[in-house]
Amino acid sequence: MSGSADRLPRLLALVPYLMSHPGAQVDEVAAVFGLSEKQLIDDLQLVWMCGLPGHTPGDLIDVSWDGGEIIIDNAETIARPLRLGIDEASALLVALRMLAATPELAEVPGDALPRVTAKLERAAGEGAATLSSQLAVDVDAAPDALPRVREGLTRGRRLSLRYYVPGRDEVTPREVDPTRVVVVDGRTYLEGWCYRAEAMRLFRLDRMLGVEVLDVPADPPAEAEPIDVTQGVFRPSPTDELVELELSAAGRWVAEYYPCEQVTELGEGRLRVALRARDEDWILKLALRLGDTGRVVSPPEMAETVRQEAERALALYAHQS
Predict the structure, then answer these.
(1) Are the CB atoms for 189 and 146 separated by under 8 Å?
(2) Where are the domains of the chain?
(3) How far separated are the first and last CA of the chain, in Å rounded?
């Protein structure tokens, strides 16, 4: 938390904390806020220059930290901690309910999550609790896939899958040594070593048409490492075809949503982006989704395929209307 976008809300939380903890020590407060002592002192120096309009000594917040003890005064105007808005509280409540529904936490003892959820509901008020309770949290698991995947993980057994691949519209058999279950963007995935691909792979549970627990110990090779899903599931390969698109201001979301190898500003909010397409169907669906907010410019054969498919779709639409 070192950027300016993070610093303001931190300072607005720091002052009420110090007001309610007189005599707090620098090292203790730094630990509470996840900062180094130097970062905390930098924040205190900034707080020392804040206050009411006029900026006379009587208007500014008075803070000192000599000897490691933090003393703050004249900060009553922002002594109350920030409150979450109804949309922020609702988002947190939905996230907590999704976390509680994840398979990895289903059998964890203790009531920490329910207690945190109950406290947040009380603090946020009836509106946020009602709104979040109306949103269903669905982990998208096929009816019998999740129990069998969990059995394979618990027993340390290899899994045999019948897995649907939408990009090729085919069902493929897979043998997988399971390593964990993860939830990314609201979807539940099995992570494991796939013997068909000879690599670590993620498999969406709702695309598993069949799961069988084999009487074979799961034994991933030494090079099998967890897949980094912090930035999403899609990770292009260097062997995937490089495609260039021109995007209007309304289509700029593509550069934020997908990993791009090159992004060039064209003026008036327009962009030219280069990204890797895992297959033709994927880029075709993206181009049709963009409509008039983006177009494929290279490779030429891909641009022609998109044009033909768009014309075919328009012809069908005109025929039906």
Answers:
(1) no
(2) 4-78, 86-133, 145-217, 241-320
(3) 55
C-alpha 320, offset from chain centre: 40
Q: Which CATH architecture has domain 4-78?
A: Orthogonal Bundle (1.10)
pLDDT (tens digit per residue) in 205-252:
888 988 999 999 999 998 888 887 776 666 666 778 899 999 998 888
Work out whether strand 170-184 and strand 187-194 pair parallel, antiparallel, or are unpaired: antiparallel
Q: For the domain made up of 145-217, give the CATH fold.
A: SH3 type barrels. (2.30.30)
Q: pTM for this one?
A: 0.43
The CA dihedral of 213, 217, 222, 228, to the nearest 10 degrees, is 30
Task: Extract the tokens encoding 279.
Answer: 């297959």
Looking up tokens 């030494």 gives 222
Strands (E) in the chain, as ranges, are: 62-64, 71-73, 157-165, 170-184, 187-194, 199-204, 208-217, 241-247, 262-267, 270-277, 294-298
Read off the pLDDT of residues 104-144 as tens digits, 9 standing for 90 and up.
555 555 566 677 777 777 766 665 555 555 555 444 456 78
Tell me which of 25 and 233 has the higher pLDDT.
25
Strand order of the sheet with strand 170-184?
A: 199-204, 187-194, 170-184, 157-165, 208-217
d(CA 81, CA 119): 16
